[in-house]
Amino acid sequence: MSEPTATNPAVVQEPVPEAWVKTELARHPQRPDPLAFIERMFTDVSQIYGDRAFGDDPAMFCAMARLDGEEVMVIANLKGRSTKEKVHRKFGMPDPEGYRKALRAMKLAEKFGRPVLTFIDLMGANPGLGAEERGQAEAIARNLLEMSRLRIPTIATITGEGGSGGALALAVTDRVLMLEKAIYSVISPEACASIMWRDASKRAQAAAALKATADGVKSVKCLDDVVPEPEGGAHTNPGEAARLLAERLHLHLEELKALPVEELLQRRYEKFRNIAQFYTAE
Questions:
Q1: 6 pLDDT above the threshold of 60
Q2: Model confidence, pTM
């Protein structure tokens, strides 16, 4: 088929896959970032700084706070809003000290019996040379291990884009939630298209194949709940989006708090052992 042109209006363009439409909404420049949700949902926020090993990572936010009076630990990556702030926060891609700070906060939460709530909107961890030299892979792996055995309720929410191990390092939790128009995948559609077809322009096709939307992630049992958004996306009404998310968080938190610790740990173990099972026909 020839390419559509202004002089050839009879050529019909193929419809854009829904997965790519939602990918663009998840990345919408006006979409509320994790901090926007935290500011609207939590009170008595007391921020925690530093990993006690290297320094503080401005791309990672950790704080003790209250959700409807419930004392919790809040952890989120920060993307920044102005251009200067985005550069300062590395566009929301944490360094190893960020993940170590997050783990330090989780351990504090465990010590004081506070549930951990994480909020995720990132393309991945910082892939820079400095981050790799300081142990990026080890920091992510350590979080995966330690989160799997925290003796407190844990809930992760993908508010925008959940990308690769950088997102997973905050998402080994009892419950994983996604906003309706968020995405969650092992690799970005552009990178996937570059690897599979050596053509990044096939990103829409890759987005569909990755099953990165909330419905797709839920179909492979990697998701526990889909949080509805205001019509048109969270950016059209951030206040309402935060209210809808707070309702779901409160519901899941009450269910998890009712479970004995040993049962909580066993359910978490079984949840991740049984994710994405597949079989081949003989």
A1: no
A2: 0.89
